[in-house]
Amino acid sequence: MFATSTVRAVVAATAAVLTVAGCSTGGQDEIERPGAPRVSAPTGFDLPASERYHRLATYPVYLNAQDPAEETVAEISTVTPDGNTVIYTDAAAKRIGFLDIRDPAKPVGKGTLSLAELGHADDQPTSVAAIGEYVLVVVDTTGGDFPHPSGRVDVVRVADRTRVRSIDLGGQPDSIAISPDGAFAAIAMENQRDEEATPPGGDEGDLPQPPTGFVQLVDLAGAPDRWTARRVDFDVSAARAAGLDTPEDLEPEYLSINSRGQVAVTLQENNGFAIIDGRSGEVSKIFSAGSVSVSGIDTAEDGVIDHTGSIPDTPREPDAIGWIDDGHVATANEGDWKGGTRGWTIFDATTGEVVWDAGNSLEQLAVRTGLHNESRAEAKGPEPEGLAITEIGGKPTALIASERSNFVAAYDVSDPTAPKFRQIMPTTPGPEGILPIPSRNLLVISSEEDDAEKRVRASVSVYGYGDSYAKAGGLAFPSIVSGDVDGAPIGWGALGALSADPSDGERLFTSTDVAYGPSRVLGVDVSTTPAVIDTSLLVTENGQPVTLDIEGLAARPDGGFVLAVEGEEGPGNQLVYVSADGSIERRVPLPVNVAAGLGGQGLEGVAVDGDSVWVAVQREVKGDPKGVVRLGRYSPDGDKWEWFGYQLENTSAEGDWIGLSEIAVHDGALLVLERDKLNGPDARVKGIYRVEMPDDTEAMSAQEAPRVLRKTLGHNLLPDLQATNGFVQEKVEGFAIAGNGKLYVVTDNDGLDDASGETQFFDLGPADEALKG
Predict the structure, then answer these.
(1) Does residue 50 fall inside a structural domain?
(2) Cα 414 vs. chain centroid, distance in angstroms?
(3) Together in a domain, 239 and 269
(4) For residue 41, what pLDDT is reported?
(5) Residue-wise pLDDT tens digits, 9-62
(6) How far is the CA of 199 from the CAs of 147, 202, 764, in angstroms?
(7) What angle do CA 348, 351, 357 make, to 5 degrees?
(8) Are residues 308 and 282 part of one domain?
(9) Which of 53, 122, 486, 489 could be bridged to 463 by S-S, CB 3.0 to 4.6 A?
(10) Closest CA to 390 of 378, 402, 399
(11) H or E stretch at 239
(12) Residues 26 and 152 grouped into a single domain
């Protein structure tokens, strides 16, 4: 059951049963339809190719390791002065990696350097920064002994990867930045707290946990053997006067240096930031980052995208920081133990005053583009962590990374008091490092989440800005978005079903699966780019919203829908007939023999064919021949089921399986979407197959092994998925041929559960051309 407040919120979001959200690629246009409220999509996604980043490549860093099964990540990255070699930290494997991007569309792994070769096998790299022929590798040697933090910076010659100098830092380091003129480096000495320790009079993980942190300034004049470090300490009284949390134990996190040599450094756990004169080493100002109340966000981890939540008077607790100009800094307000406000903020660096705050806009951007991470709703939502400032097209641009919703958003900050959204770029899970390379109009994003067993791999993504990279950019993101109702976007994600709208050739229907509830049928306008989810129809039973695992959806010509609902076990698989107003009319179970032979993967696709309904079963029914799955035909007249066999392709990959995802009736044949469970470079089988429509003599009852129908390949989807230049999606699950004759395909982002969260919606052009094999 859903809480009463949740039901009210969902019903309100689906006012008049059918809400219609108009969207234009330009931003403010509105559409009004009879019986529906006026709605709009205020965020435009129509940047011309000359004014946007294009994804060129996604390089999984396990390809740069000796053992693909081990955990290996890319966290913080830097680039050599010629812009050709990216160097990234791999804290999980305790090494740094090298990547050749001379051809940014085809990165080449150049191996790694283990910290065991520089010091000890337990050392961890926290950051890197390249200067001249060297890379400065910041190393944490604390080894879990929090009361006695230690670390160093190693100076490594890039050409032969040998260490030429090591400088003790006198504590546990985090990030590093080099001044624009190359005169000095600044290193944030965090001396981080032990999250499992309990200080006197506090709770577990609380501050203070001495020793306090500080900043090291490393002068870079001359050869490395002449480089010296200068320690900068913070005045406790000044930090207390500024209103910082636990000023006696400051923990510097991230820093940035402007053209004047001023170092801006965040004090995340203390909810503040400081400005240091890098030349003199004096702390000139300490500011509180302040608190803010944010409304219109999802704050309950309940499987429902509910925008009625709020967080009151919450500390920003900034992580990354960057200078927009010499008078303004921007912070990504990730939060830590007491805060996090799901957005980012611009401060006046002279007065510490807030000149602009993102409020709920970053989270709403995630919802609008299908990247809402429901499992983080109660915590810090999209959790903005990374931030970088660059210049593109002659305009200062802020790049904000969402650690939990897996994207980087770009904003024009020419006017720091009024940033303008420019673009959103998808990443693999956990984007951490944002590395603009202005000399080559490139952007490198490194991601830190890696799970070899689930095939969710950390990567380095490469984007190129402008016309020269447009051709290689593939499918633009987002390819599908939602419009707004009452100032909030229609929530969506996990789109595993697709159907044509029988009454409008430029429209489709889709639905979220069980990743988000309650269940809704969503209307999609495909006449725009990107496609727009502009209606939301709540599925109800006995007047109450219900949550179903909708894997297949077919619109009925006479109104209403047929849903293919997958159950956790076989008997839970059903055809569900839904009326045009969203209410369930009836449920049709599978025959007992078929249901009993199904496990957790059952009904996946459904199609209406006159008075009959076709279904696709994802995996083999127990007792059927190996590699043969069932296609079923249900006739409401007589409540009759007939069954046919479909021969799957073969797989040899360990842990892989192949199954069906969607079915449609077109041009006298059945079309079936078949896919493997692999993603990224491993993906092999993603295709739409044409199956000859069977005659009655080929049908079998539920008790008999089905006869296998003949199939031919209609369209190999792998090239389309690979052409996005992203991590090839595992779950290409929905397709439909609209009334306009075009073939559309959509991927299921799994609600960001063990997935990147990117939804790819393909317009493959005229179906008759696309399905020629």
Answers:
(1) no
(2) 27
(3) yes
(4) 56
(5) 333 333 333 444 433 333 323 333 333 444 555 578 989 999 999 999 999 999
(6) 12, 5, 60
(7) 40
(8) no
(9) 53
(10) 399
(11) helix 236-241
(12) no
Collect all residues with Cβ–Cβ distance below 8 Å to 676 and sequence separation of at least 6.
649, 651, 653, 656, 657, 658, 683, 684, 685, 686, 730
CB 731 within 8 A of CB 677: no
Question: Residue 445 has which token pair?
Answer: 């994003």
Task: Determine the Cα–Cα distance for residues 319 and 732; give it in Å rounded to an integer.
Answer: 36
For residue 318, what pLDDT is reported?
A: 98
Strands (E), 556-692: 561-565, 574-578, 584-589, 603-609, 612-617, 628-635, 640-647, 658-666, 669-676, 686-692
* Final residue of a structural domain among 288, 317, 347: 288
61 falls within a domain: no
pLDDT tens digits for range 419-459 = 999 999 999 999 999 999 999 999 999 999 999 888 899 99
Q: How many domains does the structure of the chain reveal? A: 3
Which residue's entry shows tokens 């077919």? Answer: 554
Contact at 8 Å (CB) between 89 and 135?
Answer: no
Edge-first strand listing for the sheet containing 354-357: 321-325, 328-332, 344-348, 354-357
Starting at the earlier edge strand, list the strands of the sheet with 53-60. Answer: 53-60, 459-465, 442-447, 431-437
Closest CA to 648 of 668, 630, 666, 665: 630
Boundary-marking domain end, from 452, 473, 494: 473
Q: Are residues 686 and 752 in the same domain?
A: yes
Mapped to the 3 state alphabet, what secondary structure does 318-382 carry? CCCEEEEECCEEEEECCCCCCCCCCCEEEEECCCCCEEEECCCHHHHHHHHCCCCCHHHCCCCCC
Find the mean pLDDT for residues 533-548. Answer: 96
716 plus 735 within the same structural domain? yes
Residue type (1 letter), 503: S
Q: Helix, strand, or coil here: 241?
A: helix
Here the CATH number for the domain that contains residue 719 is: 2.120.10
Do 30 and 91 fall within a single domain? no
Q: Please, are residues 241 and 226 in contact by the beta-carbon 8 Å criterion?
A: no
- One domain, residues 297 and 249: no
Q: Is the Cβ–Cβ distance between 741 and 362 less than 8 Å?
A: no
Tell me, yes or no, whether 455 and 563 share the same domain: no
Q: What's the CA gap between 173 and 191, in Å, rounded?
A: 7
Across the strands, what pairs with 465? 53
Residue-wise pLDDT tens digits, 67-107: 888 999 999 999 999 999 999 999 999 999 999 999 999 99
